[in-house]
Amino acid sequence: MMNKFMMTGLALLVSSTTVAAADHAVLNVEGEIQINGKTIIDQEGNWTGNTSSPAVINVLEYLSPTVTKVELVSTVDSNMEHHMTYNPATGMSVKEETVSNGSVVWSMEWFEQTDTSNKVRTTSSYGEEVCTKEVLNTFAASTSYPSVPVGTLAARADVLDQEVTVDNCFPENVGTKTPIKDTMSMIVAAEMTYPFDGQNLECIYASQFLSWKNEYQNRVYCKGVGLVEMGEYKLKAIVQ
User: Fold this and answer.
1) Cβ partners under 8 Å of residue 78, min gap 6
2) Which of 30, 62, 134, 161 is the most buried (most CB within 10 A)?
3) Phi-psi sector, 170: left (phi>0), alpha (psi -120 to 50), beta
4) pLDDT for residue 65 is more than 60
């Protein structure tokens, strides 16, 4: 009785008529259908119910710093730090370095950057030996991270030829040219607020795939600052 009454009431409210046929019945609705006063089907028969979609995140807003330098410190070994230096005008990386007990043990520096090429200098310290390697990257294609909804994979890629121009530890590699296709991806897991030095930074939390390690790493990127957490490293200082 209850189901029959509810169907009858609905039919009256929307001015419906039921047309019986030999093998089926047709419910004809003249007007719109509402639930709790909210239209879910309009009088033209269009669905107007829940059409909301997840917020779209502009990933580049979080990966393009407007500061000069960001310093991270290890939560496992406080003597270990990772520093990132940027060009504030472009948001592009200029240099990264790992510091142990106040001494730089690894660094990567980008220079002579154009729209289609750059040079990268990598320096590594092994005891008293310091290895320096420089490469020239010439890009055939390079894409940016797209805007994606939370919980979605974002990916970008570089297609390039890499030529070794300097290698003091392995001089036989100088002149070697290697074609490279590198894909970088991250799952943008959540938007979050990151408190630091009396302010709340607007950030995203992501699980980022590191191709050189073949593993995922948890990271936090913030608007205007860039990377503030990666794995065991947490934000120590922001240099404007």
Assistant:
1) none
2) 62
3) beta
4) yes
